Amino acid sequence: MAEQLNIEQLRKFAPQNAILAFSPINTGSPMQDWCAHLANNPMRRRELEEFTILGDVVIRIADELEPEPVDRVRIMSLEYAVKSLGNEDDGREFVRCIKAIASPDAGQFEYEQIAAFYYGEVRRRGASDVLKEMGILGMQLEAVTATNSDREISYEEFDHGEQKLTVADQRRVKEVAKNRMPIPPRYPIFEDEMKAVFRRVGRQKVSRVIYDDLAEHYLSDGDKSIGELDRDFLTFESLEQYDENGIVGLTMNGGQRSIVVFDLECEIDESCLPGEVRHLASELGRLFVGHEMGANVVQNARQMIAEAWAEQTGAGLPIESWNNPSKAPLTDQEFEEWLSLSLDRIYDQKAVRSARRLFTCRTGSAVEFVTEQEVNPDFEEMQYAAAVLRLLWRRQYSDFHLRSLRHEAYQEMYLAIRGTSDTADVADLKKRAYADFKETNRLSLKEFTALNTVAKSQEVRLRDSFSKDARRWLRKIEKATVGGLRYLKFLLYNDPEAKSLTRQEKQRLWDAVRTRETELKAVTGTNRPSQNVRSQQRQFVHVVA
């Protein structure tokens, strides 16, 4: 990351970026640099003291059985909340609201800050008003702070029994076993090649063996007792770890692990750019995918490139190529041309500066004169913005979904799936995607698998969509009697309004019908014994003349 992004330029043009919090200035005095860095970043003091920087990655040393961040915050405990609020119900509600407001991956520092702020609000305004605001805010944030497990698509497992063959299938299996082809003979050419490979591999020798003197000293048993072996083993595990560049500065044992909490390279985004250039970062994604998703931006970029080329060469271009350029995604060369033209339009300031020049005459004497030179005062900032934008452009190639969206067939199918409102249409699009993969080869296996996953997630999205007409049918089903339910089942098959409902709505209505049938059967089942008793009593009635 240091080779791709200049930290000094980042500190100059984006001083509020989070990457700078983990990049202290090195002036040659480690203690002075560290104290000055902590003073400049007071809100990140705990993170800087708890985390360790390893190149472009920030890690935290955690124990094997480490409690959750919310359990490490003392002011988040139920005892402290009840003691502060004076009511057990308010204390439970306070803790629940804090968990709902905080992010699912929030750390100990975030929980402490949120809890301390609302404790202050409770002391200043009262518990009832603050808890009401916290509850509303928690319900709003829970919709956008879902965990990874909540985002996963639910699945069902079915236990299928062992399939039994029929008599005809068993007869066919026996006939195939009798007529099966014999094992093919051995190929001598292949065996000779393998022997030659084994001969070449077998002649290799190990030049030297690297021995670990510390491991040999601490882990050898020798004449040591059990206590001495345990002590030496703990000492060996507590030694500082080294890599090829020297000491890392970590002290870990067998019961600890390292957790990556911050990747500096992944944190490079539009916030690293100066304010007047950030709108270009929002156009990179559409320039990268092109076609329908980025048609306007791509066409404007190609039109700008064509106009600049015509202006430089003085040659006229056909009007058609300006008004209707290609919608295909930009290539790397076109991106470089668009980037240089866009930055030239933003940083178009020019300044005239005087410069001293030396001219050597034929006689050998030097003559000094002053001349004027036109320069761009924002050239350094422009070069920095270009480096960040190039890094963001290259990063998109590592994303499989974005890389696949550059293919028109994949993007067209993806937009069609996301634009559906009926699971029946999703099923038809899945069949079309399979045909594009199997028959026409417009999609690769990876792209088809990704589209199949998109289709499943779209089905989950549409599962909870319910129209007003479907809700009206659902209310009728929930209140229907046995005869009314039989009539509603007939209408679900024949009524035009019911036929116009989407597949997921029909499926939900039929599930409601089955549930209502079960409820009615349970009610009739409880009343049936009394009817049997009355019928039995009627059987034993004798009419006396």
Write a compact overview of the structure shown:
By secondary structure, this protein is mostly helical. It contains 25 helices and seven strands.
| Overall average pLDDT | 79
Question: Any idea what the radius of gyration is?
Answer: 37 Å
Number of strands: 7
Percentage beta strand: 5-15%
Terminal CA distance: 110 Å
Q: Assign the structural class, choosing from mainly alpha, mainly beta, alpha/beta, alpha+beta, or little secondary structure.
A: mainly alpha
Work out the helix count. 25
Query: Can you tell me the residue ranges where pLDDT is under 50 for at least 5 consecutive residues?
Result: 151-158, 206-210, 240-249, 531-545
- Major pleated sheet: 3 strands, antiparallel
In helices, the fraction of residues equals 55-70%
Domain count, please report it. 5
Shape: extended
- Provide the spatial order of strands within the biggest beta sheet: 1-2-5
Please tell me about this protein's structure.
There is one protein chain. Strands 1-2-5 form a three-stranded antiparallel sheet. The chain folds into five domains: 77 residues, no CATH class; 51 residues, no CATH class; 126 residues, no CATH class; 57 residues, no CATH class; 71 residues, no CATH class. It contains 25 helices and seven strands. A hairpin with a 2-residue loop joins β1 and β2. α5 runs parallel beside α7, α16 packs antiparallel against α17 and α22 packs parallel to α25. With 545 residues, the protein is mainly alpha-helical.
